[in-house]
Amino acid sequence: MDSNSLYNHLERLSELLRTDLRKSGIKHGLQPVQLEVLHYLSVCNRYSDTPLAVSDYLGQTKGTVSQTIKVLEQKGLLLRRTDAGDKRVSHLGLTAKGSKLLDRLVPPPMLTNACDNLSKKARTQINHALNQLVMALLQSNGMKSFGVCHTCRYNGRSEDGGYYCNLVQQPLTVDDVQRICREHEAAA
Q1: Sign of CA dihedral 133, 137, 139, 145
Q2: Distance between CA 52 and CA 115 in Å, rounded?
Q3: pTM score of the predicted model
């Protein structure tokens, strides 16, 4: 399969999902980018929940993300808190209302219904192939992977058997290592 054919499939798939997400979001006064911000914040770790990380992950400008965050705060869907160590940095998190709404809207119903009609084997194969494609796109374009912490080269074990990040030199929780991180680098 050549890249043109693959692009056509991916573009169509993206448009179908975006349309379904737009329909779901409109019912709640939300644009797709606002749902994307909420979704990202629901899967990232505490080192990646900043406005800058959101901009990097979504490939959006700081201005767009800043306005999106303001709207989500006004709607009571996310909270901003100042970093204890560096007052210039803010961390973002979903409110209970934001989490509840996101659980209802993402993944979009269209995708959930389609996946329900596929075998477990087909879902696994598609997931694996899409993961390979995403990683190839990121690597060939020098972009950050935003991978799951436990697959990172910096992830290690502390003396007490817990998890430890060798990049930031801090202990990690079980929750941290199951989330995506903007500092992720694939283990060798």
Answers
A1: negative
A2: 33
A3: 0.87
